[in-house]
Specification:
The protein starts with 6 loop residues before the first strand and ends in a 9-residue tail after the last strand. The strands form 2 sheets. An 8-stranded mixed β-sheet has the order 1-2-11-10-7-3-4-6, with helices on one face. A 3-stranded antiparallel β-sheet has the order 5-9-8. The model has no long low-confidence stretch (mean pLDDT 96). The chain has 265 residues and is an alpha/beta fold. The radius of gyration is 17 Å and the shape is globular. The longest helix has 18 residues. The protein has a single domain, classed as Rossmann fold. It is 31% helix and 17% strand.
């Protein structure tokens, strides 16, 4: 359990914002919320995220499974994104990431784990993306969507761009070009920026914002500016995480003190 009492911030957007002293406690709290959804549903549908931020969350879920407190046997998962092009055997692919950090350690059937395919031919990418949306819809939609936030405010790989609000909140799953900031931040994982794929497949804002619960994590001072713009700026496509304000009553932000430093309260 978390070792320090978190503090809750009041936001005009009405989103729930909880600040922990450290990211370790925050991740345990996030895992508890995910486990709560899993235990409350016969067939939970989870939207999952990758990157360094959620790794401790998955570690805690694995710990709970190994302790006999949690089962993934009836869970279906849909991952937010995947680099393109990339093989699932590449250790920088998000299919590899999910297998390594979660799937291979729990009792989830392989056919219930869904990750966008980074090997699909470019000519078939639109249909593949459309099919992914159909799978989510046919499953009944996402019970919970786990998110991180990019330094430029992206969620999934929905990058900043210019669009009106109606378009920005209704983006489908699709193939996109990665923002330079995103590629720069991914550079260390690939060795050099030039090896980072220029494109990715991403679940769109349409499915993210329709999730019945949205849990977004942000840790570290390098996320403080994006967090403040997302929670207290005008919602718009230039900061994709700010679009969460449009469904604020279903959103919980879990932050550490450094990520919350830019918020005006």
């Amino acid at each position: 359990m978390p070792t320090d009492s978190p503090r809750q911030l009041a936001m005009k957007s009405a989103a729930e914002v909880i600040v922990y002293q450290n990211s370790g406690d925050a991740c345990i709290a996030a895992a508890e919320r995910i486990a709560g959804v899993m235990k409350s549903k016969n067939h939970p549908i989870l939207g999952l995220a990758t990157g360094s931020t959620p790794i401790p969350v998955y570690q805690e879920l694995v710990r709970q499974y190994q302790a006999g407190h949690l089962s993934f046997s009836s869970v279906s998962t849909y991952n937010l994104d995947e680099y393109y092009p990339i093989s699932p055997l590449n250790d920088q692919s998000y299919r590899w990431f999910m297998n390594h950090h979660l799937f291979q350690h729990v009792d989830i059937p392989a056919n219930q784990t869904h990750v966008l395919d980074g090997t699909v031919p470019a000519s078939a990418s639109t249909e593949h993306a459309n099919q992914f949306d159909r799978w989510i819809e046919e499953a009944g939609g996402l019970d919970l969507q786990l998110l991180g936030i990019g330094r430029n405010g992206h969620i999934g790989f929905n990058e900043p761009f210019e669009a009106d609000l109606a378009e920005a909140v209704d983006l489908p799953t699709r193939l996109i070009e990665l923002h330079p900031v995103t590629r720069t931040d991914a550079g260390p994982a690939f060795g050099v920026v030039d090896k980072v794929p220029t494109h990715a497949l991403t679940v769109g804002t349409r499915q993210i914002l329709k999730a019945r619960q949205i849990l977004i994590l942000a840790f570290g001072k390098n996320k403080a500016e994006a967090v403040a713009a997302s929670l207290q700026g005008v919602p718009g496509s230039n900061v994709p995480a700010s679009l969460l304000q449009t469904v604020a009553d279903r959103v919980v932000w879990i932050l550490d003190e450094a990520a919350a430093a830019g918020l005006k309260v």
